[in-house]
Design brief:
single chain; 335 residues; alpha+beta; Immunoglobulin-like; 2 domains; 6-stranded mixed sheet; binds dinuclear copper ion
Length: 335
Amino acid sequence: MRIETLALLLQGQAAGLPEHRITDIFKPLATPARAEAQIAELTLAITGAIFLIVGFLIVFTLWRFRRKPGDDAHQEPAQVYGSNQIEIAWTAIPILIVFILIGVSARVIASVQNASPPAEALKIRLIGHQWWWEIHYSDYGIVDANEINMPATPDGRMATYFELQSADVLHSIWIPQLSGKLDLIPNRTNYTWMDPRSPGIYFGNCAEYCGTQHAYMLLRVVARAPQDFKAWAAAEQKPAAPAALASDGRKVFDSLACVNCHTIRGTRAVGTFGPDLTHLMSRQTIASGALENSHDNLKAWVDNPQDAKPGCLMPSMKLGAQDLEAVTAYLELLK
Ligand code: CUA
């Protein structure tokens, strides 16, 4: 087992949250995902039945009308034209099936998209970027990235509602065990919601090709027990840790172009082009889920992001060894 994998597993255990790494749509763990899995099962059942019936008829016909000894090889089989019953049957039945599937799908789409959030529901504005996720918890004044924290809701009454937007191109949110795909579209707001029934970490990814690093535009939902979510939010609301602000690395960071793209609350770093780093160390991963948030990975990432994610929009700052160490140490104090 690779060291990183082991560390990630240990970290998952330390957080006390089970990980749902197998993103299986047939094991739904939230209401929208369950409704969509049921349509998928119905569609598979109907199309499976069609497959079996058509397959059987083909095999039966091949066998029943095969050439037999004594057949005249030059004699054409009897040609049959025009049966009103058959014509009507194979027109009406597919139309019926299509309308059943349209009806069932429309009902589920409406039930997911028209749900209106209760007043106390957590509301999140999620913005897709090449190639990371910006997460706004407006009611809490928190901006975070790539790991969506929300309360788990055993009875389904505390669902989390999303406004989905894009800063550049089409993206699509997909947490298979919580909800189906929905696009994040420039100049438009889409809405969705999720109600993870039990605390855990649910893995997902961008599901719409959005450029070079689409495949590494990963995201995860961290569903916590409601009181744990409150504690997480309270920690995130705090400004950057005083130890970080007092560190030497902060001076280096503040003198670099880093501040144009990243925000660290309480410093001159107020950029919004890249992820907010105020509580970087509260995240399990960096580079939008591509790397575990470890010392070595963080240092290598700051040194040259293009190694891990070629084409990503963060440039190498070409830091000297000492500055690289100082900036990494600064980032690691952003707890
Ligand atoms: Cu964002 Cu694919």
